[in-house]
Structure formats: structure tokens, C-alpha cells
Amino acid sequence: MRDQAEKLRQIVQNSRESPSTPVIKQAYNGSSPRVITVTSGKGGVGKTNFTVNLALTLGNMGQQVLVIDADLGMANVDVVLGCSAPYSILNLLEDRFSVDDVVSDGPCGIKFMTGGSGIYQLANLSNVQLQRIINQITLFDNWADFVLIDTGAGINRNVLNFVMAADEVIILTTPEPTAITDAYAMMKAYAGNGGAAPLSLVVNRVQDAGEGQMVVDKLNKATFRFLGFSVNSLGFVNEDPAVVKAVKKQVPFILSYPQAASTRCIENIARKLLHGEALPETKGFRGFMSRMLQSW
């Protein structure tokens, strides 16, 4: 496996841009995208719903956004978006498919791809097959401003690999004690594995800003005391019946309820991402793939 991983890393590093397909030719911005993994210690905290609505909000703000559904067990980005995704990353092995075929269009100009389990199956492919796939998917370095990766919940090796490879990490929690405990456990695992990328926190389903700040303070007190760092707060999302209604309609809440409190919260978080502190230079999706392969 180690020899195979070394071959994969070499392929990523040596790969060059292939002739662009039509979708990739649009609006090359000349810089690498920010690759952000969105994760949580506990399931059921609204991670996928948050990721999708954040992507759409960034899209509305003029950003080019690719969402990768990396939940190996319960991939449902397409369900939340109300769009179909008939193909996955492994379909790129077939000559009749290009990256345009496996990436689906969503609202607000965003694109999404089901890729989680397929990414892990790359380890079993031949070099020729790998070269074909990596040349295709890393073309998004020439298109995207943001790549948002929606992981599964929990602290297993698969989730940690996506977390450790990202340029930035957003951890989502709710005010529930079990969710806070599991969020801390994720931060501890991140630190224990040598994580150095910026780590941010979003508290979902809060009654008000005061409750959200209480969760941030509680987690920061624990991380500072036991892990030696503080976590940046990206903001809060209010408990809002509009979110449940939107899920049932399979229309993201920022589209179905643009004036809802939850929508305004997501807009504030998106603005903070866009205009917050300056970050180290990113190496885009190509850099993410290289770091992923180092974990194999």
C-alpha cells in the first residue's frame, strides 16, 4: 500500500492540465480554490444542510463553488439540493464520461459531485486510470473559488483523512451536551494527528446569540486548557422552523425562505469567510489530493 501511495502522490504532483472541458473554461480566476472540510463529531447536527446552504450563499455572492459529498455512508447532498446526481467520480474511468458528466449543476451556479467512497477506491486503480481521474478532477483548480467537502459524522479514519487534508476545517455543533462533547473530541483528534490548518466553529440551532456564544466559550475554555489553542467562531445559526419546512420541500432554505433568520445567519457566516482574516496561500484541489494520498 505504501508503494501505491507513493505512485499516487507522484501522479498528482506530475499531472498537468489537460485540455479543458467546456465547464472548466469558465472564468479562470488565476488562484487556487480554498478547500474547506465541513465536519462534526456527532451526527444529526445539520452538517449537510449547512454545507449546501453555505455553498449557495457563496454562489449568490459571486463565488464559484464545488461541493463534494464525502459522506461514505449517507451521501445526501443531492437530496438536500433537490437535484439528481446520476454519476460519481469513478465514472471518469469510462471513455464516454468527462468531468462535466460526473459534476452536476445546482442552484446559484454551484456544482456538486458525489465522490466520497470513490476517492478511497483510487488506491485500487492502475496508474493510467488514476492519471485520467486526477487530471480531470484537479481541473477544478482552474474554476472554483471554494471547494466544500461534506464529510460523514464521527471520528473515524475516513473522516479524519478529509479533515487533515483540507486548507481549512469547519466543525459544526449544536448546544446539546452530547454534540459539544463530540465536537471537542473531534478537535482533540485533529490536534492529536498534527492538524495545523485553521479550525473554525459554527453552532447550529441556537435559541439566540447568547446561547451560541456560551457554547463557543465552553469549547474554547476546554481547548485552550487541554489542547493549547482557541477556536475561531464563524458564527451561529438560529433554530428556525423554516429549515425543517425547506428540507421537506427539498428546496434549500436560503432559496425557499430568503428572509428567514437562518438565512441571515448563513449570509453572515459567508461574509465572514470572504472578508475574515487573511489565510496562508492554498494549494487548491491538487494540494488536497496530494495530502489525502499521504494518509494512505
TrEMBL record:
Pfam families in UniProt: ParA
SUPFAM superfamilies assigned to the protein according to its UniProt record, in alphabetical order: P-loop containing nucleoside triphosphate hydrolases (SSF52540)
* One of the record's GO cellular component terms: cytosol
Entries under Gene3D superfamilies matching the protein: P-loop containing nucleotide triphosphate hydrolases (3.40.50.300)
Q: Point out the coiled-coil segments of this chain.
A: none
Top-level taxon: Bacteria
Keyword annotations from UniProtKB, A to Z: ATP-binding, Nucleotide-binding
- Name a GO molecular-function annotation: ATP binding
**A biological process from GO:** negative regulation of cell division
PANTHER family linked? CELLULOSE BIOSYNTHESIS PROTEIN BCSQ-RELATED, SEPTUM SITE-DETERMINING PROTEIN MIND HOMOLOG, CHLOROPLASTIC-RELATED
Return the protein name.
Cobyrinic acid ac-diamide synthase
**Organism lineage:** Bacteria, Bacillati, Bacillota, Negativicutes, Acetonemataceae
